[in-house]
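Researcher: Next sequence.
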Amino acid sequence: MEPAARATRLEDYALRSHDKLRYGDTDRQGHVNNAVFSTFLETGRVEMVHDASGAFTQADCSFVIAHLSLDFISEMLWPGRVDIGTRVQAVGRSSLTLEQALFQDGKLVAQARTVMVQVNNATRRSQALSPAQVAQVQNYRTDAAL
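Model: Next structure:
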């Protein structure tokens, strides 16, 4: 996962969020289960797409994940919190490529690359991002992602 490998600090990401680690997130080995990592990444994506202004989403459209690659760097342990970094790496006609990273206590524990596609809810086909969406996405880019 070469693009995301450049950034190893939370500060390298334009959007930063966090989640609380729950006891139920752990597995028999005592660390946070690998399946939960995807849920933490979802938190970062949802905060970007459904920001407080509501300006990013188009009426009658949703985002679906077309691709997700996830590299596990280190284990994550309960209790604590996970910090989530999200940034836009590329913008397509109807898609966004995101670089995301998970951190615990300032230490990188996972990196991901996600491609999200905007689809029309009625036709279930991809729908182009509006000029306003493309402009707003620039808020979630960083020099490292350009």
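Model: Residues 34-49 form the longest helix (16 residues). Residues 1-5 have pLDDT under 50 and may be disordered.
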